[in-house]
From TrEMBL:
It comes from Amycolatopsis pretoriensis. PROSITE patterns: HTH_LACI_2 (PS50932). Gene3D superfamilies: 3.40.50.2300, lambda repressor-like DNA-binding domains. The keyword Repressor applies. Residues 4-61 form the HTH lacI-type domain. The keyword Glycoprotein does not apply. This is DNA-binding transcriptional regulator, LacI/PurR family. SMART domains: HTH_LACI. Keywords: DNA-binding, Repressor, Transcription, Transcription regulation.
Amino acid sequence: MGKVRQADIARVAGVSQATVSVVLGGNRAGVRLSERTRLRVLEAAERLGYLPDPVSSRLTSARNDLLGVYAFTPAFPDVADGYYPILAGVEAEAAALGKDLIMFTASSAAPDRIRRTRLADGCLFLGRHVPVDALAGLLHAGFPIVYIGRRTEMGGRIPHVGADYVSASAEVITRLARAGHRRVRYLREPDEAPSSGDRERGVRGAAADAGVSLAVTRTDGTDLAPATIAGWLADGVTALVVEETDTFAVFDAAHRALRAAGISVPGDISLAVLGRPPGGAPGPVVSGFEVPRRALGRAAVRLLASLVEPGTGEPPHRLLPCPPVPGETIATVA
């Protein structure tokens, strides 16, 4: 038998399709119906094996315990990718709260595709750059959204859960200063994103406080030649600090250039990453800090659930601490 329609139930129960719609929709309008008619409709629906359309249910109920997840970049490229533990945290917390998830797979930021997220009770978003116009429309309509990662767009009105990159990055520079480093080169990607800006703010502030001479190089990694890093070493740079992003492009390029130049870490130069390098990177454990990605996913789900069901007391913006990773790549300078 094909999909059971409300018209089929109406025929079996001997009532109008409008009556079936009222009964299956929970009679929220308070239409006067006899209990006998209501039971006849429900019995016919059960006998025919009727399953309500979740989209229709969404339109006739306040909530359906479905939370959306929308990524503006591929979300599952590899288990070592930075998004993987975030999504694992999202899944774990959604299960703990009794929520189901809808994964919106399009990486496009087109408004018509983003509007589909309203099939859910609310939606999580992740990606380095925000499609402001599309999200503004959702917020204006009162649709609950939470961004995973601190956002400054729209006057800070986007609810978010992020990592405290400012404090964590400052701690890495302070660690280098305590080890005697006074000339540091910081490598960051050229594009603008709040996470990159937060890291640089922490680096610059801590360097100024500690009297560290800091030079910032913006690069996508393609111009990091072995001779470039050898030249920095010859100029007295004793430590490289590298931004970590979801692509790991700059860290990977720096690591390759160091090997190609025959520069040992930390024997010839110290190395720190503002985050953690991809799993399985060769050599000693790189000093840096832990990005609490799984905790970010879980906290984002809790915040979204609190926006769907107001009154649970979750703040609309939250930054999680990043525990330091001592590692083995910061040497003491005599």
